[in-house]
């Protein structure tokens, strides 16, 4: 008679489990920051949120990077290694463009502050987007590692041997999960900042 495995006690892959714990901790941190900001807004002590227009474009860029990473994974699983390298490189480039756009947005915020006399929530905007940017930089580091690993194996046989190795499959899965997490996190943060602006 077959036994059913208990979902709470079954063995889990430790790196995957640690990643989910870290993402849960990050989500909790951002949630606390947003609740704190929302509570201050209810008391009328925050001022206005100066949201730069470039953040709209950077949001589109980061979503495109998630799409390209998804298709990079599809190519990896279907043994299309040239396509995998190109899409992974595209994801990395889009991540770097996002970083540049965030820095441009910060400059726009600083310039607007010099011209503005009204009280605003610049400190909170720097804090929340800066903490998110740290997460993005971690993701870029690991995507760069995966990309340079892929560039080292241009021969089909080398690429195939690399792709069927379970630890390499796990690494790509972890990098992908984290990248999609930081992309979705930015969507929620951007939506929160947009509604605070209104």
Categorize the overall geometry.
elongated
Helix content: over 70%
Mean pLDDT: 85
Low-confidence stretches: none
Judging by the overall fold, what is the CATH architecture? Up-down Bundle
Number of helices: 6
Overall tally of domains = 1
Largest sheet properties: none
Explain briefly what this protein structure is.
By secondary structure, this protein is mainly alpha-helical. It has six helices and no strands. The longest helix has 35 residues.
Write the layout of secondary structure elements.
Elements: H1 14-42, H2 54-77, H3 81-115, H4 122-152, H5 156-163, H6 166-197
Helix pairs in contact: 1-6, 2-3, 2-6, 3-4, 4-6
Keywords for this structure?
single chain; Four Helix Bundle (Hemerythrin (Met), subunit A); mainly alpha; 6 helices; 198 residues
Write up this protein.
By secondary structure, this protein is an all-alpha fold. It has a single domain, classed as Four Helix Bundle (Hemerythrin (Met), subunit A) (Up-down Bundle). Helix content is 80%, strand content 0%. It is built from six helices and no strands. Helix 2 runs antiparallel to helix 6 and helix 4 (122-152) runs antiparallel to helix 6 (166-197). The longest helix has 35 residues, at 81-115. It is elongated and about 60 Å long. The relative contact order is 0.16. The mean pLDDT is 85.
